[in-house]
């Protein structure tokens, strides 16, 4: 078998934890740590698209957050929230925290939540509440205010124009940290064509169509959100204070569960491209000329053969994958919310 028989989104999120660990732009993290050091306790943190809680674990383990933290994380997927609670509990035990879990606690404007209270031997503490909710809609409704907003790999899958203003409104006179924001480049190696398996132009067409699907007007997000964010933040009341590249790079031999991460991505690319070319080779809703031209060169059989070859490369430990992302840290100067 060259690929998994089923895919689970929460497992993918956990599998990419080590990929993100390597990718995160350290100078931007250092600036974040320095900027948080002088803030009054407890530090109030809100995360949009918290997934399985890997960013909270990371920020605590790496000493980015101060000794007293109150955190709230939102994600649309109940399964991700369940895994976040379990993951934090397991991590906290190994990190020397005393843990209490409160079921059914209520978060502001988001319905029931689940709260974990972590107490460290050095008198550090973190209270984390997770709730299944749309973070942008919560931001529109709530009067709650925070010191730090986190959105990891989030803004490139939502409508940036619709989401950014309300989210920044959560952190008046605070900070907004948007790491791992996709910015338009994907590559896989080794290249096709040398052994006659698949023409290299097929892969170029697949990736062109894949990026074009991200930019379709009927789909939230975009393939160049990273660079667009640098202009959108000042317009929405934020000042960019740090940033840098946070490229994903996965090479064999694959550590931890990173082979699953790669299989999941290849499957996602195959699904998006297959759907896009299903209607007489058109990229549904996309205005990308390159994407439309690429789609015209593809057939369902060619896309399937491409995916099978790339899954086989993962299974055999030969595939290298890369994607270009940006980390951006901004200071929010006012409490003016853009609706």
Description:
- The chain has 339 residues and is α/β, with parallel strands linked by helices.
- It contains 12 helices and 10 strands.
- It has helices at residues 9-15, 17-23, 26-37, 54-61, 78-94, 135-141, 160-168, 200-214, 225-235, 258-277, 289-296, 300-315, and strands spanning 43-48, 68-75, 98-107, 111-119, 125-132, 148-150, 175-189, 238-245, 248-250, 320-332.
- Strands 1, 2, 3, 4, 5, 6, 7, 8, 9 and 10 form a 10-stranded mixed beta sheet that branches.
- A hairpin with a 3-residue loop joins strand 3 and strand 4.
- Helix 6 packs across helix 7 (160-168) and helix 10 (258-277) packs antiparallel against helix 12 (300-315).
- The mean pLDDT is 91.
List keywords for this structure.
339 residues, ten-stranded mixed β-sheet
Mean pLDDT: 91
Q: Fraction of residues in helices?
A: 40-55%
Distance between the termini: 49 Å
Total strands: 10
Unreliable stretches: none
Quickly count the helices: 12
- What is the gyration radius calculated from CA atoms? 21 Å
How would you sum up the major sheet? 10 strands, mixed
Query: Tell me, what's the shape?
Result: globular
Protein name: Methyltransferase domain-containing protein
């Amino acid at each position: 078998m060259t690929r998994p028989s089923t895919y689970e989104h929460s497992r993918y999120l956990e599998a990419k934890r080590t990929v993100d660990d390597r990718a995160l732009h350290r100078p931007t993290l250092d600036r974040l740590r320095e900027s948080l050091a002088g803030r009054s306790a407890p530090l109030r943190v809100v995360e949009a698209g918290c997934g399985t809680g890997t960013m909270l674990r990371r920020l605590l383990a790496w000493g980015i957050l101060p000794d007293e933290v109150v955190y709230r994380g939102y994600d649309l997927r109940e399964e991700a929230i369940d895994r976040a609670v379990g993951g934090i509990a397991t991590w906290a035990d190994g990190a020397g925290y005393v843990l209490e879990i409160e079921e059914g606690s209520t978060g502001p404007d988001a319905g029931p939540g689940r709260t974990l209270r972590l107490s460290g031997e050095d008198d550090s503490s973190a209270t984390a509440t997770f709730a299944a909710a749309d973070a942008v809609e919560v931001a529109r409704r709530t009067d709650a205010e925070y010191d730090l907003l986190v959105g990891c790999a989030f803004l490139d899958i939502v409508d940036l124009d619709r989401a950014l203003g309300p989210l920044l409104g959560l952190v008046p006179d605070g900070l907004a940290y948007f790491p791992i924001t996709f910015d338009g480049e994907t590559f896989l190696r080794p290249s096709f064509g040398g052994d006659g398996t698949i023409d290299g132009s097929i892969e170029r067409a697949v990736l062109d169509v894949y990026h074009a699907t991200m930019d379709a007007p009927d789909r939230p997000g975009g393939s160049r959100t990273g660079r667009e964010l640098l202009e959108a933040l000042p317009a929405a009341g934020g000042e960019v204070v740090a940033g840098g590249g946070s490229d994903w790079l996965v090479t064999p031999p694959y550590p931890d569960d990173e082979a699953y991460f790669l299989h999941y991505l290849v499957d996602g690319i195959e699904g998006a491209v297959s759907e896009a070319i299903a209607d007489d080779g058109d990229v549904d809703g996309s205005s990308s000329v390159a994407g439309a031209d690429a789609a015209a060169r593809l057939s369902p059989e060619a896309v399937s053969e491409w995916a099978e070859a790339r899954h086989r490369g993962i299974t055999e430990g030969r595939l290298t994958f890369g994607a270009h992302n940006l980390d951006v840290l901004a200071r929010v100067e006012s409490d003016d919310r853009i609706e």
